[in-house]
Design a protein that fits this description.
Number of strands: 3
Number of helices: 3
Strand order of the largest sheet: 1-2-3
Order of helices and strands: HEEEHH
Largest sheet: 3 strands, antiparallel
Length: 83
């Protein structure tokens, strides 16, 4: 049975164009790990008192979440590689 670290290869990256998290190997091959979801909730965090949504701020926040998740996975991969 393969190990999780083998599925992720060497690192993961977040693609802010497609809102995907990709596993990348040494040959630069990409395997999709996840789609970043939650837009319905995220956009509502950026409503003003009149109900208008700041879509640019919401999109930046969504990308920040994707970067955070990718960084967390990479940190775990690096930490486990040292043990």
């Amino acid at each position: 049975m393969p190990e999780i670290k083998d599925f992720f290869h060497e690192k993961v990256v977040y693609d802010n164009f497609g809102q995907y998290i990709w596993a990348v190997d040494s040959n630069r091959n990409h395997n999709k790990v996840a789609d970043l979801r939650g837009w319905g909730t995220i956009q509502n965090l950026f409503k003003d008192k009149k109900g208008a949504i700041d879509f640019e701020a919401a999109a930046l926040f969504q990308d920040s979440i994707g970067e955070f998740i990718a960084a967390a996975i990479n940190e775990k991969l690096q930490r486990d590689a040292k043990t």
